[in-house]
Design brief:
Shape of chain B: globular
Strand order of the largest sheet of chain A: 8-10-7-11-9-12-13
Strand content of chain A: 15-25%
Number of helices of chain A: 25
Helix content of chain A: 25-40%
Largest sheet of chain B: 9 strands, mixed
Radius of gyration of chain B: 16 Å
Distance between the termini of chain A: 54 Å
Oligomer: heterodimer
Chain lengths: 758, 234
């Protein structure tokens, strides 16, 4: 037993211990290979830095390079391939390269939108990771002068049976709702999928859409020499340091330790920031404005100067901090949320200040523009960074990484797939499966009604949001089918765009432009790089053929854990315009005794179908090919019918194929359908995932006219049944009660989150 | 024509929805009043505190807003018998301000919920519900995480005894069933009146169901009833 030392009673502490440890003094820290690697830089990249600045960098400069040159900020692995994406159209005001994309929708209005990924932070801390993903994308939109009017998202989680999945699902959904609902924007659409390949890497892609006057769009490029650079918003803390660098690397065993790299969000602060920014923009106080997102102050200050052909000098002593003793390094890399950087018109500064005070926001002049084209950072009277501002971005490495195409899978014929169960049983199982079941549990946690403009709520092919008092409305969707991309990245990329285009068309909209989130594994692996290149090629081809350009987007790489990559997931966020929202269509059957028409060709493509996976327990075959010309002509035909008020219900056919789509139309209405005998093998006809198809209902009396019109237009069309009754009746099968379908459809997700075995 | 005022605190986010409903149904856009103001526009008939997350729901929902400068003028208005309507966060603010009894706690399911609910109108002889029939069931959306109405037994007994519960969460046929009580509120209470009968708080959002082009219009009755009330009084 240890002897108790003979001392007096212990002295009470007079102050708590300091934590974290005081930062190192600002003398030059030795740059070791370990330090370089810890910053996510390769040795070659470090040599590039030395060559660029002609000396060793300071620790702050090393941090700046690590932030500007990581994958997330520099797009070094994807840049050369992204160049092949079509980005122009007569209605595109601003393509990729700014905070968000901008399109002209007429009447003096522009729509500003973008989708961003927040995958890595969400895996580490699902609530805050997802919340700050929403916060970040909202800022990207309102920093351009647009009031956000809708949000969407695309979420991918691991297999339901994986121990992390429930926790991630619950946290991410709560985080998205927690931020969006409080900020005050309706979250009107999205997708959720489950697959074992996301076990170690969930995906959270958040999209925001805003409305702005087309002649009052604000950009990041600073102008004018000697202009004060103003910091607005929340104080800077130690959260999120190296967030962008963390997002540019795989996860390993040490994932838990990365928790401090996740940013923490405050939607109330963001709401104040939104109102203050829109108010000063309305008062014409702003020359340039940029939100602080990935790589915080560093990225925004550099871009502001570089885009304007100016230098920037920052004085970190002026930066509002919420922790004492923050080093220059920490301040430059902090990803504290809800902050903006701006250049104001000098004669309007007082007016702007009054607005900031009104909304209770912190602001400070933290620097100025200079003619020197240098990025200079001062702290405590010393210069801690002095770098060439344009080259910081321009000289970032650009890689042409080796890539290997995914080998083509064999096409499965109908004969290759024997139906193991009856059609009715297959349908009931599919409609209650994780990928097809109702997501109501998710979207009822999102306020999808706020702002009073939601014409079509979640659950349909696309969300429809009225613009001001109408009659115009926007149609919005997010979509992608990763299993197709895994089997054939090129066809999968094409299909993602085609399906987004179809979703918008199905509600009566003219698709205008899209934003993309390219989520892939480690690009240093040739097979993964091949997936990225293939998908980009496919996306490009579809965008071209459909006049549906890419105006913004994001690339998220290194979505792998211990060498196992996610399914290639190029998420597409589409925006379309409806001239008269009262004419937009929903998928619910409207009344009985209407003819159900199928537009588009059906050969019965079972390869990579959900039927094949869920019912036959196989994940093979080539994915369904996309015939872009047919997509175009079929879609244009459907859109015309909608505009003329002939189609009472419309639904595009996708995951699961025809019968699940019909089931969805029945469940949404309570009206069943009597279905004709299929023209080919039942399982292939009902569950094949042939592309370019729509279901629509018309008055029985006009069915023939519509079919004739389709024939004349070269659009394949046939009547497959009649609405009515309380069940789906198929020849030779037992009737499937709509109520029974609904039970399965609505039942899976709530039971799963409550703990039922998946 | 009714003169209404919508009070806006930092973090309130449904003021546009409310302003539009008032404009469409009453024919006149409301005045938008800032939390830091100390007076309401002269001749204000109806003051509305709309929904949102005022002050980020910091401390407690509505706790900080209840103490904002404008609230003195709001109290005076209510004290004179002026009509006061609090919706969602507005209801929470009125409870925090002591203008209504009880408190709104976290939904029993512990999640934010946005969905259409059915409300049974308990009385039609108040300015707020004269646009409906007693017993009528209306469909309006809710969007909240803290709508679970709680008060001590004596307060609940008083509210019930004095007929001050104006709306209850019900099944579509008007029956009270636990599965249709969206947030677990005591006695399925969705909205309550003050003693004097001039202050109403309710959690659901009638202002989001006033346009036929967008869906149900069951929310119109609340605003139309108020317009009638002031027409009659004029």
């Amino acid at each position: 037993m240890a002897k108790t030392p003979a001392k007096g009673p212990p002295r009470a502490r007079t102050k708590p211990p300091a934590w974290p440890a005081k930062p190192k003094a600002a003398k030059r820290e030795k740059i070791t290979p370990e330090l370089i690697a810890a910053h996510g830089l390769t040795n070659e990249e470090y040599q590039r830095i030395l060559a660029l600045i002609g000396r060793a960098p300071s620790i702050t400069e090393l941090g700046i390079f690590s932030a500007m040159w990581n994958e997330h900020c520099s797009y070094k692995s994807s840049k050369i391939h992204l160049r092949m994406l079509p980005t122009k159209a007569p209605w595109v005001i601003q393509g990729p390269g700014e905070n968000a994309g901008v399109i002209d929708i007429g009447d003096g209005l522009a729509v500003v939108f973008k989708m961003e990924s927040h995958n890595h932070p969400s895996y580490i801390e699902p609530y805050q990771g997802a919340a700050t993903g929403v916060g970040g994308i909202l800022r990207d939109v309102f920093t351009m002068g647009a009031r956000p009017i809708a949000c969407l998202n695309a979420l991918s989680f691991g297999a339901p049976a994986h121990p992390q999945t429930r926790h991630l699902l619950a946290g991410v959904v709560a985080g998205i709702g927690g931020y969006g609902n409080s900020f005050g924007v309706p979250t009107v659409g999205g997708l959720v999928r489950f697959h074992t390949r996301y076990d170690g890497n969930c995906l959270v892609n958040a999209m925001a859409v805003g409305l702005a006057p087309r002649d009052k769009i604000f950009y990041a490029a600073a102008s004018g020499v000697g202009m004060p650079i103003v910091y607005l918003g929340s104080k800077t803390g130690r959260d999120g340091i190296h967030g962008a660098t963390m997002a540019s690397a795989e996860f390993g065993e040490d994932t838990e330790e990365k928790r401090p790299t996740v940013q923490v969000g405050d939607p109330f602060a963001e709401k104040l920031l939104l109102e203050a920014c829109l108010e000063i923009m309305g008062k014409d106080c702003v020359i340039a404005i940029q939100d602080m997102g990935a790589a915080g102050l560093t990225c925004s200050a550099v871009e502001m100067g570089a885009k304007g052909g100016l230098g920037v000098t920052l004085d970190l002593d002026a930066v509002p901090c919420r922790e004492s003793g923050m080093s220059a390094y920490e301040m430059m890399l902090s990803e504290s949320q809800e902050r903006m950087l701006m250049v104001l018109k000098p004669e309007k500064e007082r007016e702007a200040e009054a607005v900031f005070k009104k909304w209770g926001l912190d602001f400070a002049v933290v620097g100025k523009t200079t003619p020197s084209k240098r990025f200079v950072v001062r702290h405590g009277g010393k210069v801690v960074a002095d770098l060439p501002i344009k080259e910081l971005g321009d000289e970032a490495p650009v890689y042409d990484r080796p890539h290997v195409d995914t080998s083509k899978k064999p096409v499965l014929t109908i004969a290759d797939v024997a139906p193991p169960v009856a059609t009715a049983d297959a349908l009931l199982r599919l409609i209650g499966s994780p990928d097809l079941c109702s997501r109501r549990w998710v979207w009822e946690q999102y306020d999808h009604v706020i702002l009073g403009n939601t014409v079509q709520r979640p659950g349909g092919d696309a969300a429809v949001v009225r613009i001001n008092d109408g009659p115009k409305a926007l149609a919005l969707t997010t979509d992608v089918t990763p299993r197709y991309c895994e089997a054939d990245p090129f066809e999968g990329g094409k299909q993602a765009v085609a399906e987004a285009w179809r979703n918008l068309t199905a509600v009566g909209a003219r698709p205008l432009a899209l934003t993309d989130n390219l989520n892939f594994g480690n690009p240093e692996r040739a097979d993964i790089m091949g997936q990225l290149v293939g998908a980009i090629h496919g996306i490009a081809e579809a965008c071209e053929a459909l006049d549906f350009p890419v105006v913004s987007g994001n690339v998220s790489l290194y979505n792998e854990t211990n060498g196992r990559a996610i399914l290639p997931t190029p998420t597409i966020g589409g925006v379309g315009l409806i001239d008269d929202f009262s004419k937009s269509t929903t998928l619910a059957f409207k009344r009985k005794n209407e003819a159900i028409l199928l537009i588009g060709e059906t050969a019965g493509w079972l390869g990579q179908s959900l039927y094949l996976r869920e019912i036959c327990e196989r994940e093979d075959g080539a994915p369904p090919p996309v015939d872009l010309a047919a997509e175009r002509s079929n879609g244009d035909f459907v859109r015309a019918l909608i505009a003329e008020g002939i189609a009472s219900a419309v639904h595009d056919v996708s995951d699961g194929g025809l019968l699940p789509a019909i089931a969805e139309m029945a469940m949404a209405s309570g009206i069943g359908a009597e279905l004709n005998r299929p023209p080919l093998a039942a399982h292939a006809f009902w569950f094949g995932e042939d592309q370019g198809r729509y279901l629509l209902t018309v008055e029985a009396g006009v069915a023939e006219t519509v079919l004739a019109r389709a024939r004349a237009a070269g659009v394949p069309a046939r009547q497959i049944g009649l609405t009515g009754g309380d069940a789906l009746t198929l020849e030779g099968e037992r009737p499937i009660l709509v109520a029974k379908l609904r039970e399965r459809f609505e039942g899976w997700l709530p039971a799963y989150v409550a703990g039922a075995a998946p | 024509m009714i003169k209404s005022a919508v009070v806006v605190f930092p973090g309130i986010n449904r003021e546009r929805d409310m302003a539009r409903a008032l404009r469409l149904v009453s024919g006149r856009a409301p005045a938008m009043v800032w939390h830091a103001d100390t007076a309401l526009p002269a001749g204000t008939d109806l003051v509305v505190i709309p929904g949102g997350f005022s002050y980020g729901d910091y401390l407690r929902c509505g706790a900080i807003a209840a103490r904002a400068p404008i609230m003195e003028a709001v109290r005076t208005h209510a004290g004179r018998g002026g009509l006061l309507l609090g919706v969602c966060n507005g209801f929470q603010i009125l409870c925090e301000a002591g203008l209504l009894p009880g408190v709104l706690m976290r939904n029993t399911a512990l999640k934010f919920v946005c969905r259409d609910v059915y409300l049974r109108i308990e009385r039609s002889d108040t300015p707020f519900t004269r646009g409906y029939n007693a017993g009528q069931v209306i469909r309006v959306p809710v969007a909240h995480g803290e709508g679970n109405y709680i008060a001590d037994d004596a307060t609940i007994a008083r509210l019930e005894g004095e007929g001050r519960v104006l709306f209850r969460y019900a099944a579509p046929d008007g029956e009270l069933q636990p599965s249709w009580n969206v947030n677990g509120s005591t006695n399925a209470i969705a909205g309550v009146l003050n003693e004097r009968g001039n202050v109403l708080g309710l959690m659901p959002h009638p202002e989001n169901h006033v346009e036929a082009a967008l869906g149900p219009t069951d929310g119109r009755g609340l605003f139309a009833g108020l317009v009638d009330h002031f027409k009659q009084a004029a």
